[in-house]
Specification:
This protein has 16 helices and eleven strands. The chain has a three-stranded antiparallel sheet, with helices on one face. A three-stranded antiparallel sheet has the order 5-4-6. A three-stranded antiparallel sheet has the order 7-8-11, with no helix packed on it. The protein folds into four domains: about 5-65; about 75-135 and about 215-245, Tyrosine recombinase, N-terminal domain (DNA polymerase, domain 1, Orthogonal Bundle), CATH 1.10.150; about 140-210, Orthogonal Bundle (434 Repressor (Amino-terminal Domain)), CATH 1.10.260.40; about 260-425, hpI Integrase, Chain A. Helix 2 runs antiparallel to helix 3 (about 95-110) and helix 12 runs antiparallel to helix 14 (about 340-360). By secondary structure, the protein is an alpha+beta fold. The longest helix is centred in the C-terminal third of the chain and has 22 residues, at about 405-425.
């Protein structure tokens, strides 16, 4: 039932009715924002006649609202954006995508969240994008440097390895900190705690605001455009004004590529590492898979006879959700990959080693289906520990810079592309 409220001027004369139509509750039990409208009263009408006309108008309007023929275009951008993100999550959008959207809403809401959908203009968006490009607009990062960490280790008779294990910090990060390079503030706190000292006694902390890149600004634009496009689809606004906004020009960025000889150095350094790490990195290099896809690989997807692996699973991490399994990033990411015989043989040896480990671990929750252990204490399940471990291997290999899992997966791709181009130019045979 619509609610009518009289509005009178200072002389007490009836001038209009405020109509409020309740829209019920959402799926999570929250009350939806009521639809409101104003019914103007003509001066020639009597109050009794005006009341009847207002009630008739309200009844018709209520029927149209309930049948979806009238939409509330007076919603604020932040309210409607929350609704769109809820719908995206409900209809199967990846958790990692929702996480990325949520991270961007803080800045978006501060700039245009208070503006009604129907009132958003291209200049609002242009000013917001310009604000994002200003110096210091990025996320605040606190780092810490120490020039006396090496002396403290000697004084306390501690090794870099013992400090790494005690503080739960990757060994390559400890080496970097000892050299005086900046490390994250939380890392400095962990190292200081292990040394039994206050962080301010060991490190000099500093605060730095990073500027957002043009590519990041375009990510913000895509989220805003997605929300406004949904509003157009639902009939809340006539057009998507973000299409008329001016975006910053993308700058070409030099990618950190590694050469084939550096790949060989990594392979040589792997020989002295545990077999599970050797298997992980070799599959990363030889398959070009994402690290989550490698961690999600099941033994029943490894064909030892045909030397292939089937990628149809992905291990991911999202705060407040934890580590979980999902399908690969896109439909095309589900693929069958051929691996070199040496890599398949390494997987075979690793499987045999893993089976022996499972027998030795009484009470383990391992089921034997995953190529990598599922026990939470195993570093392989800590997705973010992989770059740190690769860093320690790169230090052993004496590389100038540390390859990330992403760089490793693309390295072999570039080598193959280079070799293919050479074949087409010179007509060479198969690679040895």
């Amino acid at each position: 039932m619509a609610n009518l409220q009289e509005r009178r001027d200072k002389d007490g004369k009836l001038i209009s009715y405020s109509i409020r139509i309740y829209r019920g509750r959402s799926q999570d039990g929250k009350q939806l924002k009521p639809f409101t409208a104003t019914f103007e009263v003509k001066p020639t009408w009597s109050e009794k006649s005006a009341r009847k006309k207002a009630e008739a108008y309200a009844a018709t309007l209520e029927d149209r609202v309930r049948n979806g023929l009238v939409s509330d275009n007076r919603q604020r951008f932040d309210e409607y954006c929350e609704y769109v993100l809820e719908q995206k999550a409900r209809t199967g959008t990846k958790k990692t995508s929702i996480k990325g959207y949520r991270a961007m809403t803080k800045r978006i809401y501060a700039a245009i969240g208070h503006i009604l959908l129907k009132d958003i203009r291209p200049d609002h968006l242009n000013r917001f994008y310009a604000q994002l490009e200003e110096d210091g607009s990025g996320i605040e990062k606190r780092t810490a440097c120490s020039r006396k960490l090496a002396d403290l280790l000697k004084e306390k008779k501690m090794t870099r390895k013992s400090l790494s294990e005690g503080a739960g910090v990757p060994i390559n990060t400890v080496y970097s900190a000892v050299k005086g390079n900046p490390v994250p503030a939380k890392t400095a706190i962990a190292l200081s705690k292990e040394l039994g000292m206050d962080v301010n006694e060991v490190f000099d902390t500093q605060k730095k605001l990073h500027t957002l890149s043009a590519n990041t600004v375009q990510h913000y634009h895509r989220l805003i455009s997605m929300v406004l496009e949904q509003a157009v689809k639902e009939g809340l606004i006539p057009q998507n004004v973000s299409k008329r906004a001016t975006l910053p020009k993308l700058q070409r960025k030099e990618v950190n590529h590694f050469q084939p000889e550096e790949l060989l150095k990594i392979c040589e350094a792997l020989q002295g590492e545990p077999i599970k790490w050797r298997a992980l990195v070799m599959v990363l290099m030889m398959s070009g898979c994402r690290r989550g896809e490698v961690l999600g690989l099941k033994w029943d997807k490894v064909d030892f006879a045909q030397n292939t692996i089937l990628i149809d699973n992905n291990v991911l991490y999202v705060p407040k959700v934890g580590i979980y399994e999902d399908t690969p990033k896109t439909a095309k990411s589900r693929r069958l990959i051929a691996l070199p015989p040496d890599t398949i043989e390494l997987l075979r040896k690793y499987k045999a080693w893993q089976e022996e480990e499972i027998k030795a671990l009484k009470g383990s929750t391992r089921t034997g289906d995953s190529c990598l252990p599922k026990r939470t204490e195993d570093p392989c399940t800590r997705i973010r520990s992989i770059p740190g471990w690769i860093g320690s291997v790169s230090a052993t290999a004496c590389l100038i810079s540390t390859p990330t899992p992403s760089v490793i997966r693309w390295l072999v791709y570039y080598i193959i592309m280079e070799w293919t181009a050479s074949v087409s130019r010179h007509g060479w045979g198969t690679p040895r």
